[in-house]
Specification:
Elements (H helix, E strand, L loop, with lengths): L12 H22 L28 H6 L3 H8 L20 H16 L11 H4 L23 E2 L12 H4 L2 H4 L3 H13 L2 E2 L8 E3 L2 E3 L5 E3 L1 E4 L4 E4 L1 H17 L3 E6 L11 H7 L9 E11 L2 E7 L6 H4 L5 E4 L5 E3 L9 E7 L1 E3 L2 E2 L1
Antiparallel strand pairs: 1-9, 2-14, 3-4, 5-13, 6-7, 8-9, 8-13, 9-10, 10-11, 11-12, 12-13, 14-15
């Protein structure tokens, strides 16, 4: 149902939770002001959450099927009206202390325990099939093909929760969500997988083929944009090193954050290189967006890396089988995100994972 009439409420679920978002982020904004951030933002209203009123339009359906489809967000929304302990539950009890992020983390934790046989909860193999569900036997069928080098396909998606950067719960108002692709990618690695990601904007400078990149510790830069000529130039000395690192981490079961370029900076009349650098957001003046590599395969004579797209609200597009970055003969790794078929991504940098206190 779209309204809370069943519970004596007139407002829709979206309105109820938009009101709660206003209350929550008004409090957060005050803390930001105390820390000297977001001073231009003076108040929070429901207009800051334009998609929130429609958030519960899909809060229905078969929860088990949503879980099989790896759509944890929809599964949680569909279950919340029944299960009072879940985030966003609507039964009138006190607000749960747990967030959607916490629920996703717990789901992965329990799933891995079950897969590894570390629980005393016995689930008979094939029990879902007995209940009428088609599950799991063809889960990785879309990610196939062993490369000539013997690299077998890998798909980490079943055990890694996807997350959108356009999450009011996580990031607050729309303006903050728009610039949270890196932070969302980092959240998935750190909170859902337990990895500490490297490649932070530190103080260490790196010189790559004569170009000094500021604050680029633990980053493998494999391409740089030349905006004047609208070209993206591969860094051949780092190309194979980057591919080897992606393979190494995937074989450990680790996802990897990568930076991609999708739009050339457009010089305006009279524009200078100094102005250009001020307008480009990331330190390498090439990276426009961040995604997460979660698998690999081989298709039509080309290797590819599967990625999670955090820059969409649609779970199916964010985890799509065709979110693939292909390794090309010109030393570029490119692909098309399925939420925006008019865009082409080119990997510019690969950000290292930190394990056991050391970058490797």
């Amino acid at each position: 149902k779209s309204t809370m009439e069943k519970y004596g409420q007139v407002k829709s679920w979206g309105e109820i939770w938009a009101d709660k978002m206003v209350k929550k982020w008004t409090k957060e904004l005050k803390q930001f002001h105390l820390k000297g951030s977001y001073k231009k933002k003076t108040s929070i209203t429901k207009n800051d959450f334009p998609k929130y009123l429609n958030r519960y339009d899909d809060a229905y359906g078969d929860v088990i099927q949503h879980l099989i489809d790896n759509d944890l967000d929809r599964a949680l929304r569909a279950a919340a009206p029944t299960w009072a302990s879940l985030p966003d539950a609507v039964n009138g009890q006190e607000d749960t202390q747990y967030t959607t992020d916490d629920a996703k983390k717990k789901f992965r934790e329990f799933l891995l325990q079950e897969i590894n046989g570390e629980t005393d909860l016995y689930l008979e193999e094939g029990f879902l099939k007995k209940l009428g569900y088609k599950c799991c036997e063809n889960q990785n069928s879309a990610i196939t093909g062993t490369s000539p080098e013997g690299k077998e396909p890998i798909d980490l998606r079943p055990t890694i929760p996807w997350h959108s950067q356009f999450s009011a719960d996580t990031w607050g108002w729309k303006g903050r969500q728009n610039v949270r692709c890196y932070d969302t990618s980092l959240l998935i690695l750190q909170k859902f997988v337990g990895l500490k990601a490297g490649g932070t904007r530190g103080n260490q400078n790196t010189t790559v083929e004569g170009t000094t990149l500021l604050g680029s510790s633990n980053v493998i830069q494999i391409a740089l944009e030349v905006s004047e000529s609208e070209t993206i130039n591969p860094i051949e000395s780092n190309f194979q090193k980057g591919i080897d690192y992606l393979d190494q981490e995937l074989e450990k079961g680790n996802p990897i954050i990568v930076g991609v370029r999708h739009t050339f900076f457009k010089y305006k009349k009279g524009s200078t290189e100094k102005k250009h650098k001020k307008n480009e957001q990331n330190y390498d003046k090439s990276t426009d967006h961040f995604v997460i590599v979660v698998g690999r395969g081989y298709e039509d004579g080309k290797r590819y890396f599967l990625f999670y797209e955090v820059g969409t609200i649609h779970s199916d597009k964010g985890q799509h089988d065709k979110n693939r970055l292909y390794v090309n003969s010109d030393n570029k790794i490119t692909g098309i995100p399925q939420h925006n078929l008019g865009n082409t991504y080119t990997i510019t940098q690969i950000r290292g994972n930190k394990t056991n206190g050391n970058f490797k």
